[in-house]
Structure formats: structure tokens, C-alpha cells
From TrEMBL, chains A, B, C, D, E, F, G, H:
Protein name stated in the entry: N5-carboxyaminoimidazole ribonucleotide mutase
EC number: 5.4.99.18
Keyword field contains Isomerase: yes
Encoding gene per record: purE
Coiled-coil spans in chain: 133-160
GO BP annotation list: 'de novo' IMP biosynthetic process
Keyword Cytoplasm: no
Positions annotated to bind substrate: 10, 13, 40
Listed Pfam families: AIRC (PF00731)
């Protein structure tokens, strides 16, 4: 039974959104991925969101671009935490996507990450699950230590260049 | 039976949105007005949109602010033309509302008017109805003549000031 | 006799604007297309707009970029509903086009669609005509059902990828 | 016979635009002022612009806000230099007005000044007339010397404050 | 032992941030609140973040304005989920705060809510805790039902106004 | 003796600015072109501007990008009309150039054209000279007629495409 | 002999700029303050900048708004470090001032602080002088310790409020 | 012992940041360069900043992109002057980087240069060191003279082109 649902409005969002899936896989978190469009399949989207908690999902990651309504609409129909990924489209560099996702009215929050930041959406889902799962939190802490090592290696590489 | 449905996410949008109602009233177009929230009553919103055409509505005007999902979500669930009014909130001067409404994906258009432009939403609904109603179109043409007279009066007033 | 007039300021707008024509063709809506420039042929533009309704047009779609005056100027001279398409130019990603089209003063609305959103302009014209044409509205409803099927297919394709 | 025509879309623009008139008066340049609306009186606007040069006008100053089409439309119908003043409206701080005026396509220039910068529009008209009028140019040079004196006085006042 | 830490860079952020505390109180979630400044007390901030998980916190809400570094810096030093609230300052309407919080690099997510959206930050913290706490999730679902009732009441009130 | 001075901050601006020179050439207006940098040769720039009118120049066209100070600084030191061309650089699409040029304080106007709009700068210089030169104004009027013919040709070409 | 020159384009900038003077006074750094306008007194500005180093100044702080040319122009004429303060004017919240100051071309840097950030300009001048003045650097370090104490006091005050 | 520390959040910033190193090298100023990440190595960053002055550094140049926290965080932990370089990332053209760096709160200044303006960061460091080093200031003055010569050469080259 997956813990995280990764949804997106179109399969053209997958090249961006798969980075969320990869992050979840790295941490051994089970997920499902679906194309669910707020604008093309509104009832299916509502149904997906309404049943998500009962199906055992604990976090939903939703990516969308332009007038990006998917994350907010899903958040309106589930009590689960919803993470929104602003997908950049051809114009405006994702600024429209960002504002459409983050500027939610009081009552219905969406946990928004950076423009195109699907990997961080995956990592945020892990942190949310890890809030009450010590083993997963240790993995996250270890990952953060790895980031430090990576920086140290990059610094060493830089020394040889200057 | 009303021809136009005027909906908004909260009664706090009414001070902006009532200008749409006033324009419709001026042209003798019957309308209904409802608070229907994309984020607080998603199912009710879907239901409203799904049944709108069958109930006899011909145009829907939807106002919303911030991550303004109401116009686009309604447009996704009805074949009627939907007019979106970006309602300005406390920050960003309605730019978030505008982008959230206008930047709809291919397949589901929203006829967007200016920030806070509810009067124009009402007038646009009249023009849409008038496209196939010659009497109403004559009224719109007469209204446009009135605008000209108004400008002439203002110009005369200006002459006395300079 | 065409129902829809598709106009643009320059033939360089055609690669964007032809998507409106294609949508109209898909729905069997007759249209005409013309290059009519607000800035290079102002009198011709006024003439086009002034006679549009009498020639039998019911909706006008106008695309323009930069200081995009064509949609608003046409709307000022016809009682027909005018749909504006912000055409993105070399700089600013169409934000100038969008604001020049959508921010019309009270009295003269332009039904604005997304930046580069000519296909949606065509679909909006269909919805406007369908408001009083049940057969056309059924076609639009069927089209919306097709969009759902498309999403279902894309979702199936995604399942085989993850 | 006035040298400069000052026009604006509405008498509500006059509180901003009168600064242009004041600057012209300071330099003894004759002007006329009119309410001429691109969106409410398009034919009158075209007529105004078409006959301006023959009536003896040498420069036109046009102020407008929002989807500000007046300066560009006038420029399209006269060979005279047209100065555009972006009038700030209730939202967006005049950024929509600025882009709607300045981003004109190749072939039809508008000499744009700052948001709300009607005084500078007046001074620019003076400079344009002074380009071929040595007496007027001397006045402008003297005015610029006055600005220097003003700065010197302000600097002296500042010294007594610190 | 509190589950949520609410921190902010200055006590001047409290008028915005207390809405997060109120939401937590409504749901019976224990929290602590502290002034912790990224720029004035960097070591204390690092210490706060480093020990948060071990002290039993499960979620951190961090509010900051301008070059808003607090949420991202705390996220860099804890494996817990961090919610960022962009606090609007005197200029730019919180756009600088939003971008400084949401545009985090890959590896370190911040769950960003709307500009000034502290209430939603509190509700998001509840959702995160509720992901693995069925009783709390029921409360959230009940709260969402209440929102629906509220809309129904507002709609009724609107009917008496039109 | 040239009537128009075309200046720019760097020879890298020439690919943009030469369109101004071409427009002037088309109308038979004599010009000079120089690299004069506000930031690298401030004294030379001041000297250029200070002596421009006495050397017989009637209009100055100045192009600059980024923190574009050249047009405004030249305008501060000459009574001649100065036309500013915002040159787009690698980032921000020329929005910084535009604001740095157009937002001049009261007292010192710059006639700003569109981002990258050097051709229009040339045409605006022609209009300024033509304000008191009937022959040149006839040429400009003829040019505007040519634009109309061009649109008619493009419209004809479009007909064969649809 | 003052170490720091504080200049501004108009005495209307003083309410913002005096915070720089106050910061310098707190650290016992001698300064002079003058109204020097890039646009109204270009030659005086050049003279001020050209002689600043020889007169013993070590740092220049320049505040300006709108098309803010003073900091960059001064930087072009002195080898001293120049700190630019974007002064917010009536429209655009200082975004025009910021871009006009910070986006300098390669070769001529301006050390830009936040919009309205004159206090930080003063503190930055202190840091620059302190780079080679150990006593002053100790003062700055002590000031930074004071900031920490202030945060601790604010945190204590917050505890009594929640 | 180096006078200047050049740091950046990732080795991917080096293609931008090396221009700072080159400028320092041209002026014979010794520097060190390191990868120090605010978000991946927060403690190391604090340590770097805390010990910088004692290790003999006089100026720190920090480059970062997106939610760019490195310059501000370093400035919060050292009394040295810190120069911030907004590194442009894939989206938003560095506007997020700029605002995240420049909009620092009162008390902790960052000397911000243009987007991608690493060369100017190097030159600004030279000017800061030169404020109390006459030989270095002469070099900077000589460099500024060279810029003038360069402009003269470019102007000569332009003459042969027109």
C-alpha cells in the first residue's frame, strides 16, 4: 500500500515530476503515480482526493503548471497534507504556476516547493512521514550528512582548479 | 429562469462582484448570485457547474482572488462560456488572481476580464447573450453611444476648468 | 457567411493564431481570417469592427502582441463579444501583451485568454455560440468527455513507465 | 492656434495630466486640452489624430491608464510626435499603463515618460518645439540652470539640519 | 512537550504569526513560540534547529520577511518538515519574502504557504501530524465540513442582499 | 552637419541601435553615431551632451542596457529632446533597462521607446524634426500609407494560406 | 576630515537617508551630507565624485529613487567604494530604484543595499572602514552581540504574550 | 595570507564566480575560493564566517542562486564587509537570487552587485581594500582610465562601420 500519491495534470509534467518519484524511491517510500487533471477530469480528481486517506495514502504530491489548480483543489477535498510543485511552462518561467499554487485562501493550505522543485517535493514527503517514523528520520539525517560530504568533495575539486 | 449565474468564493468578494450584477440589471438580463467556493465546497461547485446548462443558464461569471481556482474549475465542468473576474486581495494587487484565472491550459478557456473588472464581466455576459439576440445587441450599441455622449460632456466640463 | 472573425495585427501572428482557426474547424464553425492592424491600419480596423455585426459575425477573436491594442480597439467599436489573445513577442514573455489586452476600462470588455492561448480562444468562441445552440453545446460536452478519455490514456501510459 | 494638444481618456486623468498643462504654460507654449477616449469614442479619437497636423498642432500629449491605448492609437493616425503618459490606476501601480504605452511595434513610436510623469511630458513637448526654436531652447536651458540653483538651496538647507 | 515549534525573526512578525498559534490551539496541538533570528542570532538558530527533533518537536513553522532566510536555514539543520511563512514587509508586498523562502535548492525543501498565510501554516502542521494520527485527521475533516457550512450560511446571507 | 546624434554605451549595442540609423537614412536625415559611455567615460558624455545643441544637433538618440544611465544623463545636460532605447541584456529581458530609462524625475524627461525599439527611436526623431518641417512630415505620412499597403499585402497572403 | 560622504538627489530623500547618518554617528565615523543631483546638477556631481578621494573620503553613500542614476554615476568617476540606497518613490515600491542602481555594467560596481535600507548603507560603510581598522571592527562585533541580546529580550517578551 | 574570500554554494556557481577571481588577480589581490553551502553545510558556513576576520580576510565575496542565503548568513556572522553576487538559475533570470540577497533586514548589510555580476564583485572588493591603500587606489584609477581608452577605440571602430 503506497504512502504517497504523486499526481500531475498531464504526462508532459512527468519529466519534471519523476524527480519526486526518484527521491521517494531513494528513501524506500512506496508511492503511486497518476495523471489526474483538475481541468480535464474534475470529478475524477475530486474522487481521487476524497478517497485518498481511506486508501491509506498519507501525503499527496501534486504538480501542475500555468493556472495550476490541481494541488489546491486536491487539498480542498482531503485532510491529508498536499505538496504542490509549480511546473514551469513555455512562458513566464513558472511564476504563474507558483502564484496559482501558493496563494491559497485561509483554511486550505498547500505546501509549495520551488518552481520545478519536484525532488524537494519528494524529500518533503519523506520529512513529513519521518516526523513520526524515527527510522526514516535517521535516513533523512544521514542524507543530510551526505550532502555535507558532497560539498566537501566539490570544494576539494575547486581547489585543483584555481 | 436566469440567463447568467454570478458566483464567488466568499461573500467578501460581493463588494467587487456586485458591479457585474448591476450591469446585468441595467440590461434587463436575469441572473442568480451565489457563494460557491472552489476550496471550501468543491463538490457543491462541481455540482453547480455540471447542472448549470440544464438549469437554463447561458453564461457563468465567477469571481475569485489569490490562488483563484473557481472560474477555471467551473469552466472544466460546464460547456457554457465562463467569465473570470480576478478579485484583488490584500497583497500583490490582484496579479496572482489574474494569472491563476487567465493562464488556463488548452482545452478549457476562461474569458478573463481586468483585475476587479466585475462591471466588464457583466457587460461581456450581455455581449455574449446579444450575439444571438438582436434586441439585446441594439441595447449594447445604444449603451456604447451613451459612453460617447458621456465623454463629450466630460470634455465640455474640462474646457471650463482650463 | 462566417460566424467568427479571426484577426491579427501581422501575418507573423498567424503561427500562434491558426490554433484558433483549427479549433473552430474542428467544431464546424465557419470563420474568416484577416490581417488588420490597430497601429498600421487604424481606419480599416475601425471599419472592420463597425460593420462586423451587420455582416453577420457573432464573435471576433483578435490576437496581438506588445502594446496590444487590437482586441480592445475592436471591442470599442462593435457590440459583439471580442476575445483577445496575448501573443508573446521576443521580450517579456507576453506579459506586456496580456496586460495591454486584459486591463480594459469599465464599459468595454475584452474576453482575454492565456498568453499564446489561441486554441482556447477558438474554443471560447464555440462556447459563446453554443450558449444558444444546443447542438453545438452537445459537441462541446462531447469534446470535454474526450479530454477525460485522453487523460485516462495518458495515465495508463504513465503506469507502464514507472 | 495651439502648438500642443493635451488629451486624456477621462476627466479623472486630469489631476495627473494638468501638470503637463502647467509646464507648457510656464514656457508660454499654447495648448488645447480635451477628453478623447480610445475605448469610448474611437472614431472621434481617429478624427482628432487625423486632423491634428493640419489644424496646426505640432506635438500631442496623451495620457491613459490600464490597457492604455490612446497614445499608441493617436500615434498610428498622425505623423506628429506623440508623447504618452502612463496614468497609474487603482492596481498595479501603473505598470500595465506603462507597458501598454511603451511597447509599440516597429513603425509607430510613442515617446513615453514615467508613470504619472505628466510634467515631464510637458517639458518634453517644449524640448521638441525648442529643437527648431532657439528662443524656446534658451528658456529650457535657463530652466535647467534654475534646477541647479534649487539643488544648491536644498543642499544649504540640509547643512543646517545635520 | 510541544509538537510544533513556531519561530520568527522578530517580535514584529508576531501579529502575522500568531494566526498559526491560534490554528494549532483550535486543534489542541501543543506548540512553543520563539523569536529566533537567522541574521541576528545565527548560532542560536542553528542550535534550535539541530536539537529540535531530539527535543520532541515534529514540525517547525518559521516566519520571516524580506531576504527571508530563517525557514530555509532551519530546514538545512533539521530533518523535520519546516513550514515557511512569507511575512510581507513595507515594500514589494511580500514577493521578496516568498521567493526567498520557496526557491530552495534541491536537497532542502521548505513547505511554503501564501504571503502572510500563517493560519494555513498552522493548519498544514495539523495535517502533517494528522497524516499518522487518525483522531487528528478526523478533526481536520470535521473542520473542512465546517467550512462548507460557513459557505452555505454566506450564500444564504447573500440571497437576502440581492 | 548632422541633425541627430545616435549614441550608445558600447559597440555591443550597435546590432540593436543600427536600426535607428537605418530609419534615419530612409528618411534622408543626417546623423552621427558614437560610443559614449555614461559609466566608462562620464566626462566625455557630459561634454558630448553639453555641446550638442551648439554643434547643431536637434535630437539625440541614446541606447543603453541594464542600469541604463546614458539617456537620462545626457538629457540632464542638454536642452535637446533625448530619445532613450532600452537595450535588452542577458537577463531580465530589458525590464531593468526600461525602468532605468523611463522613470526619470520631474524636470528631465527622456522620450522612451520599447525594449529593443531602436527603429522606432529613429522614426520618433524623424517625427520630432518633421513637427516643424512640412516636407519631412509628408514623407512620414507617406511612410504610414506604405504601412497600410503592407498590411493589405499580408492579408492577401493570409487568404491564400487558410 | 570626514571619512564618508552621504549624498542624495533631493532633500526629499533625507527622511530615508538620515538613517545612514545615524548609523555612522553611532560608530563615531565622521561624515558629510550633501544634496547632489545626477539629473539636475550633473557637472557638480561629477566634480564631487572626481575629487572625493583626494579630499580624504574613503566611502560614498548615495541614495536615489526612480531612474536612480546618482550611485552609478558617482561610481564611474571615483575609485572609492560607492554604496547605493534605492529610495522608494510613489509607485513601484522601489523596484525601479533597485534595478537602476544594482544592474551596473562590468567595470563599475555599486554596493547596493535593500530598498529604503539606508541604515544598512551606514553599517556597510562602517564594515568597509573596519576592514583595515581593528578598533572599528571590534565595535562592529560588539554591535552584532548587542543584536543577539535584543533578540533574547524580544523572545522573553514573546513568552509573556503566549 | 589572502585578503579576500570567494565562496559559493556549489561548484556549479564557479563559471559565474570565477570572474570575481580574475578581477582580483588582475589587481594582484590575494584570495582563496571555497565551496561553502548555506543549505548543505550550515555549520561549516557559520564556522567559515566566524573565523574569517581572525584568519586575516578583509572582504568576503559570496555567490548564490535561488533562495540565496549564503551572503546574508555569512554577513550575520562576521564583522567584515560581505559582497553578494546573485547567480541566475534556470528560471526567473536571477530575480529570486537578487531579492534573496539584497533585501536584508536592518543591522546586517550585504553589498549586492548585479545579477551574474561577479566581475564587479571582484572590482568592488578591490575598491574596498583600496579605500585605505593608496597604491591599490591608483591601480583602480588607472583601470578606470583604461576603460575610457577602450571606449575611444570602440568609437573609432564604429566610425568605420557606419
Amino acid at each position: 500500500m503506497p504512502d504517497v500519491g504523486v499526481i500531475m495534470g498531464s504526462d508532459s509534467d512527468w519529466p519534471v515530476m519523476k524527480a519526486a518519484a526518484e527521491a521517494l524511491t531513494e528513501f524506500g517510500v512506496a508511492f503511486e503515480a497518476h495523471v489526474v487533471s483538475a481541468h480535464r477530469t474534475p470529478e475524477k480528481m475530486i474522487e481521487y482526493a476524497r478517497t485518498a486517506a481511506d486508501r491509506g495514502l498519507k501525503v499527496i504530491i501534486a504538480g501542475a503548471g500555468g493556472a495550476a489548480h490541481l494541488p489546491g483543489m486536491v487539498a480542498s477535498t482531503t485532510p491529508l497534507p498536499v505538496i504542490g510543485v509549480p511546473v514551469p511552462l513555455k512562458y513566464l518561467d513558472g511564476m504563474d504556476s507558483l502564484l496559482s499554487i501558493v496563494q491559497m485562501p485561509a483554511g486550505v493550505p498547500v505546501a509549495t516547493v520551488s518552481i520545478g522543485g519536484a525532488r524537494n517535493a519528494g524529500l518533503l514527503a519523506v520529512r513529513i512521514l519521518a516526523a513520526t517514523d524515527e527510522a526514516l528520520r535517521s535516513k533523512m539525517a544521514a542524507y543530510q550528512e551526505d550532502l555535507k560530504r558532497l560539498v566537501a568533495e566539490k570544494d576539494a575539486a575547486l581547489q585543483s582548479e584555481i
